[in-house]
Specification:
297 residues, alpha+beta, five-stranded mixed sheet, binds zinc ion
Length: 297
């Protein structure tokens, strides 16, 4: 297999631990290999038609729209699933074939057989109140690449503790793990424009948009751009796809992502992007070849 300078783990080290589905009230535990089938089987109804799955190749644009007014509060919604295929043009470039991730486990009845070697990336959005968003401790939790602690002990990964002890010092010193505390949040309360007279800041909504994949051998990055219909307003951010480049998932359930994974828009920004329409355009570009700029996320 060709040398890949962006790879930071070996495939045999990647955990197959199931994690709790991040969506809405779904309480299923989902293994990384079953993520694509789970989303297809249980969460397709939110985006009817064929727009739920999007093939996404290296540095190519994927476009979708969503209506912020239809988002329920405090529930994570999946706007769609990107199926990352690496560089376009060669079947041998698909991530599972190159050993970046494991193949998706897809029953023959799923109709998704051709997508087995793509890397699934969820496009997630969560509407929350300003206070919920502001008070939540998103970045100060330790960012060690360690197995999640489950209530049910039988779900723990056998042998994982030995691996953790052996690798912990290296993980602590890895650049990816010291960045989150240094990176300023994409939004701070001081950036918020003054609320209209009579408008309580506690009632303002915040929209957190992020992408989340499965643990794999290298980090994927995503450029997210939200813009209006006539391209007069927009917000853009370069972020890391959560859980990629990790042995163990960093988001194991329904918690909000770290700032390095997400773009946050205030209600005022969303209103500007919607204009007289009810939809925000969202462009996503995935890349596994994105070099992390020095001093950035
Ligand atoms: Zn689910």
């Amino acid at each position: 297999m060709a040398f890949n300078p962006f790879k930071i783990h070996e495939l045999e080290d990647i955990s197959h631990l199931p994690i709790r589905c991040p969506l809405e009230n779904c309480m299923d535990m989902v293994a990384p290999m079953d993520l694509l089938f789970h989303l297809k089987a249980h969460h397709r109804l939110h985006t009817p038609g064929d727009t739920y799955l999007h093939l996404a190749f290296e540095a190519e644009r994927c476009l979708l729209t969503f209506d912020p007014s239809q988002l329920p509060s405090r529930k994570t919604i999946c706007l769609g699933v990107l199926l990352f295929g690496g560089q376009r043009g060669s079947v041998g470039q698909l991530p599972a074939i190159r050993g970046i991730c494991c193949s998706n486990r897809l029953p023959p009845i799923s109709g998704l057989d051709a997508l087995g070697d793509f890397l699934p990336v969820m496009i997630l959005v969560r509407k929350s109140s300003f206070l919920e968003w502001f008070l939540l401790d998103r970045n100060t939790k330790p960012d060690l690449d360690v197995p999640p602690k489950w209530e049910h002990h039988e779900l723990s990964d056998p042998g994982s503790q030995d691996w953790v002890k052996k690798e912990e010092s290296e993980i602590n010193n890895h650049p990816e793990n010291v960045e989150s505390s240094q990176f300023p949040p994409s939004f701070s309360p001081e950036d918020q424009e003054p609320a209209e007279e009579g408008e309580d800041i506690r009632d303002l909504a915040m929209y957190t948009i992020w992408t989340q994949g499965v643990p794999c051998t290298l980090p994927l990055h995503v450029t997210m751009t939200a813009f209006d219909r006539i391209l007069s307003e927009g917000r853009s951010a370069l972020r890391r796809v959560a859980n990629t480049g990790r042995v163990y998932p960093e988001i194991c359930g329904k918690e909000l992502p770290k700032d390095r994974n997400s773009m946050t828009l205030s209600q005022r920004e969303i209103d500007k992007l919607c204009g007289t329409q009810h939809h925000v355009q969202l462009e996503l570009i995935l890349s596994e070849r994105c070099q992390k700029p020095t001093g950035c996320f």
